[in-house]
Amino acid sequence: GAGVSQTPSNKVTEKGKYVELRCDPISGHTALYWYRQSLGQGPEFLIYFQGTGAADDSGLPNDRFFAVRPEGSVSTLKIQRTERGDSAVYLCASSLQGTSPLHFGNGTRLTVT
Amino acid sequence: GENVEQHPSTLSVQEGDSAVIKCTYSDSASNYFPWYKQELGKRPQLIIDIRSNVGEKKDQRIAVTLNKTAKHFSLHITETQPEDSAVYFCAAISDTGRRALTFGSGTRLQVQP
User: Fold this and answer.
1) For chain A, which end, N or C, has fewer CB atoms within 10 Å of the first or last residue's CB respectively?
2) Which positions in chain B touch A45 (Cβ < 8 Å)?
3) In this model, does residue A3 exceed pLDDT 80?
């Protein structure tokens, strides 16, 4: 079984542009999480899906950030009007259920120039 | 919400010595405490976890202890080896409130050969 897959691995974009980051969780995992990790910091929670619905989106920093998981599997994190401060590694993780061990993907390194 | 504090931020030990990393949490409802190891440029990987119904758990050279009364938990690595060098993150989660791991800020462990 494959682990959590994230694409692209790297994304460079200009300030003001729109980006989409994709996460393909481990098959059968109902819980999916997005985290953001800046250099030298721990992962910072963004949003949590249980199935298709966002169970907790309280970590999204502002309304430029949005995420979907329409069929309860693949998820897309969408960032509008990117800013240089959005530059970070965006990590996706999945688990069988809420308090089961989290399995992380390799992340997408986003650089906003 | 949950707040997790981690100390020290950096730790240097000689090969063969023990290393201890400590974390405190704020939410008394937290009941699951994993530890992740992250090597440079790689994904966080679960190394050990503990649930609130036990006080200690061991896996070869790694152990975790939990003090629910004091709301702190610790990672112990014995007989350290150079390949243990990495950044270690503690985390906590509860079944109530935000159902997503809250991470500490990380400890950079360096094992000197």
Assistant:
1) N
2) 98, 100-102
3) yes
pLDDT of A55 higher than 90: no
User: What DSSP character marks residue B51?
Assistant: E
User: Is B24 at the interface with chain A, CB within 8 A?
Assistant: no
**Among the listed residues B57, B62, B111, B105, the one whose alpha carbon sits nearest the alpha carbon of residue B84:** B111
Contacts of A103 in chain B (CB under 8 A): 46
For residues A92 and A75, what is the distance between their CA atoms, to the nearest angstrom?
9
pLDDT for A97 equals 76
Per-residue pLDDT of chain B (113 residues; tens, 9 = 90+): 889 999 999 999 999 999 999 999 999 999 999 999 999 989 999 999 999 888 999 999 999 999 999 999 999 999 999 999 999 999 999 877 777 899 999 999 999 99
